[in-house]
Amino acid sequence: MPRTLFDRIWDAHRVASLPGGADLIAIDRVFLHERTGAAALARMAETGRTLRDPARVFAVMDHIVDTRPGRGDGTLMPGGEGFITETRAACRAAGITLFDVNDRDQGIVHVISPEQGIVLPGVTLVAPDSHTCTQGAFGALAWGIGSSEAEHAMVTGTLRMERPCAMRVTFAGALPPGVTAKDMILALIAAQGAGGGAGHVVEFAGEAVRGLDMEARMTLCNMATEFSAVTGLIAPDERTFAYLAGRPHAPADFADPYWRTLASDADAVFDSEIVIDASGLAPMVSWGTSPEHTIPVTARVPDGPQRAHDYIGLAPGTPLAGTPLDAAFIGSCTNSRIADLRRAAAILKGRRIAPAIRKALVVPGSMAVRRQAEAEGLDKVFEAAGFEWRMSGCSLCFYAGGEGFPAGSRVISSTNRNFEGRQGPGIRTHIASPETVAASALAGAIADPRDYPA
Amino acid sequence: MSAFPQPLVARAAPLLRDNVDTDTIIPSREMRSTGRTGLADGLFAPWRYVGADTRRENPDFVLNDPAYRGAAIIAAGRNFGCGSSREHAVWALAEYGVKAIVAESFAPIFRNNCIRNFLLPVVLERTAVEAIAGREVTVDLAARSIACEGIAYAFAIEDEAQQMLLHGLDAIDLTLQHRADIDAWTAADRTARPWVYDLPARTQESVTP
From A23, A36, A134, A266, which residue has the greatest number of CB atoms within 10 Å? Predict the structure, then answer.
C-alpha cells in the first residue's frame, strides 16, 4: 500500500498500539530550553524518575537570555536568572548536553539543532516549544509539546498519541522575485485560517518548495504551528543531506540507501490536499492580531473582528503600505539564519533607516550565524544602517517583562506571532519577511521590498 | 492533581472569541518562576486587568463579572489555546479553578496539555457553544454529554483521555507498563539506525567561546 512520508516515520516508530486507540511512538530526540524545560526536569526530580537515555536529550539557554554583548546569567527579565541557573543545575544533575549562555554554539533551539546535526531525516524529535515544527524541514517528524509530555518522553522514550491525519500543501510553479518562504506560509494561513491545519501533519511539496534552500525550508515549516497543524515536514533531498553531512551529531555521509526511502510514494493518498500557485504570490504582511490576518503588502485592510481593528488601530479599507512604524525587528526561529541576514543586509547596504524608527534590532539565530555574518561584514552593514547587532537568542519575539519596545510602538517584525501584547503590552506587531522588515525600516512605514532592490 | 469532578455542574463563562492564544491566557511576563504554581493571578492578565503593571480589574472582562468570577467552565470560539506550547496556560486555568473548556476547536498542544492536567477540553459546534454560553450546564464525562436547559449535547473524546480524566491516571505510569515493548523496540532500532544512538560527547573546545 502506498504511504506518505509521515506514514513511514510514524509506522517506523510505533512501539505498541494502546487499548484506547492511541499509539505508543518512540522519540529519538528531546530538546529543552530554560523557559519550559526546567519545569519538566524539576517534576522528574520531585517524583524520583530518571531519564531513559540522557545522551539523546539536549538543552539550550535561548528564551530569556540577555542579547546584549558581554552577557552573563543576568537578564533584564525580573526573576529571569533563576530560569537559567535552575536549568543549568538540573541539566548537570541529569547528564544532559547543555548549550549554555556563553557556549560558542549557543542559539535558538530550532537554529542550533540543525547546525549541530541533532535533527536528522526520519527521526522523531520533540521539544516543549511550539516552533519545533521548524525542524520538519529536514524530513523529521518534529513537534511541540508541553512540559508534562517532555517529562513523559524523557522518562519513557515514547509519547502516547492518536495518529494524526496527513495533509499535503503543494506550492506549484516558481516564486516571483522578492517573494520568500515567509510569504508562502503567511499566504497559506491567510487563505485557510489559523485553524486550517488542525489534526494534520502537513507535508510541503511542489516546485517552489524544492527550490528553497534549507534555511527557507525551515521558515516554511516554522509556522505550521500557526496553522494549528501537528507539525509540518518536507521530504529530504540532496540539499538536505549536503547541509547535514559531517555536522557534529550527524553521520559523516548519507550514502546509505535508507535515506532515499524517506519520501511519500507517488501514489500516496493524503487525507487532505491544498494546492497554491506560488507564481501568483506577493510579499505578505499581517494587519491584525492573528497570523490569519495577513494580506499582500499592496492590499487594503479587509473587514475583520472589531477587536483586532481596535487593537492594531487600522480601519477596514486602509492601505497597509505606508502605515507609519516606530520599530523594526529581525530575528526569531522563523527568520534569523544566515540566508535571512544576507537578504536583509543586501537591501540595507549603503542606506539608513528612517528617523521615525526608534528601535531596530538584528538578533542572529545562533552564535555560529553571528560569526558567519561578521565574517561577511553583515554586522557592519546593519550597524551602518541604524540597526543594533546582538548576541543570539529569542529576544523580542515575545515580551518577558524585561527588554521591550518603546511604549505604544508599531513594529515590523520577522517573527511568527502578531498576537495582542506578544511583543509587549499595547505593542502592535506586523509580521513579514526580513526583506519587508528591512525595506519598511528604511521607509519608516510598511513598504514593499520590491521597491528597494538590493 | 485531582481527576475531573464527575459530573461537573457550573455556569459556562462566555468568552466567545476565536484564536484565544496562550500569550493572552498567561503572558510570558507573568511566568516568574520555573514552578507550576502562582499563575492564577496572571490568568488572562491583558484582558482581566487595566494596564500592564496594575491589578486593577477591567469591569468589562467576563471573569470580573460577579456571575462568572471563579468560573469552572469557559465557553470559547475556534482554535482556543493557539500559540506558545507553554503548559503554564493550563496550570494557570486549573489553579484559577477552571475544570472544563467548551470550544469550537482547540490548538493541539494546548489540548494535550489540558488532558495531562485533567482539565476537560470539549469540542461542540458553534451554535451549541453559543447555546450553553452564560448558562448552567451539567458536564457528564462518563456519558460524553453536556446538558443545558433540557437539551443534551453529545461530544467526542478519545477513550484513553476519558479514562485518564475520570480516574486521574498518570500517563507515565501507564506507559511504563510497556517497558518490555520499549526495550525490545529500542534494541532492534539501535541496530537498524545506529546514528540515532551513537552520539559524540561535546568537547571542552566546543563549549568555550
Answer: A134
